[in-house]
Specification:
The chain has 311 residues and is α/β, with parallel strands linked by helices. It has helices at residues 13-30, 44-47, 65-73, 87-95, 114-126, 140-149, 174-187, 201-208, 224-233, 243-250, 264-267, 299-310; strands spanning 4-8, 34-38, 54-59, 79-83, 100-103, 157-162, 190-194, 216-218, 236-240, 254-258, 274-277. The strands form 2 sheets. A 6-stranded parallel beta sheet has the order 8-7-6-9-10-11, sandwiched between helices. Strands 3-2-1-4-5 form a 5-stranded parallel beta sheet, with helices on both faces. The N and C termini lie far apart (48 Å).
């Protein structure tokens, strides 16, 4: 029976989450969990911790080619699936003794739709249609503990809010989020879980010191492992295009994502749980990298769609 390794070059949490559906499809095709080689920045070890389709996560570190080969070789994999057009990753796979290696055509990925490229690649190997909706598995006991610890109940709307992003051009102004939270709370008593990291503390502090701050709980000092069950205990997510939003979508939350400087066709249309807003004057097709439309996201549209989401 095949022993398979899935290799992921991408550094982001969102990229990893989008690829989960492909990992599951490969595992199901060989009727066996697969190993995943991924960079630490994806937090794959924590995100895939409870996944029955993943046997282990191996760190794709930057300490050199042969250090990674040494990690892989002892596992005796016979198949690899490389979600990249990298020659380096192909050599790592071959030199690790893996005989059957599937990979994107070299130097072919630039400018292509991220999720569609991955899906088409997997389908071409497996010879069948696959779902693009990812699923993150989280321990039910951990979710119940989060519900008790943070007093999460149906008495309020519990909303995950991805206020940060990988760059300032992908981030809606924090004052807009404060105003949005105030307006939502007037319609529906709400609690806002601020999905942001340690580097975003200034953004978090601005919200916590505002009039809506008492309704907010910050993730900025928590680990990914701590935040996962909290996210799973909520129902909705309103967010910039950020890793936390993709996690929320993959644990079943209904999400509203604001795309202002990244392509929604590549990072928003893969999931049935995601609704999309783009800058005024843009479309799903025209919005992309270098759109720089954070000041053209309509507040009224975000508020209207947020209230639709919550209803």
């Amino acid at each position: 029976m095949s022993k398979a390794l899935v290799i992921i070059k991408s550094m982001g949490i969102g990229d990893l989450v989008i690829l989960i559906a492909n990992i599951h499809a490969i595992s199901k095709s060989i009727n066996k969990p697969v190993a995943v080689l991924a960079q630490k920045s994806t937090h794959a070890t924590k995100i895939l911790k409870n996944d029955p389709h993943v046997s282990e996560v191996i760190d794709l570190d930057k300490k050199g080619l042969f250090n990674i080969i040494k990690k892989i070789r002892s596992n005796n994999f016979d198949h690899s699936y490389i979600y990249s057009d990298s020659l380096r990753l192909f050599l790592i796979s071959k030199l690790s003794g893996i005989k059957n290696n599937f990979q994107y055509r070299f130097f072919s990925k630039k400018g292509r739709n991220f999720f569609k490229t991955a899906k088409e690649f997997t389908q071409s190997i497996l010879g069948k249609e696959i779902e693009s909706q990812p699923k993150i598995f989280i321990n039910n006991e951990d979710v119940n503990n989060a519900i008790k610890k943070f007093n999460i109940s149906n008495k309020t709307k519990n909303i995950v809010c991805g206020i940060s992003a990988s760059g300032t051009t992908k981030r809606w102004d924090i004052k807009n989020y404060i105003k949005l939270f105030e307006n939502i709370n007037e319609k529906h008593p709400s609690r806002f879980f601020l999905a942001a990291g340690p580097k975003d503390q200034k953004l978090v502090d601005e919200i916590l010191s505002s009039s809506i701050g008492k309704n907010c709980i910050s993730f900025s000092k928590m680990t990914i492992e701590e935040t996962l069950p909290i996210i799973a205990a909520c129902k909705n997510c309103i967010s910039n295009d950020t890793g936390f939003a993709h996690i929320a979508s993959a644990v079943g939350l209904k999400c509203l994502l604001l795309f202002m400087d990244s392509p929604p066709l590549a990072y928003g249309t893969y999931s049935k749980n995601i609704s999309i807003i783009v800058p005024e004057g843009e479309t799903l097709e025209s919005c992309g990298h270098d759109t720089k439309g954070k000041d053209k996201i309509s507040f009224d549209e975000v508020l209207h769609k947020s209230l639709e989401l919550l209803n």
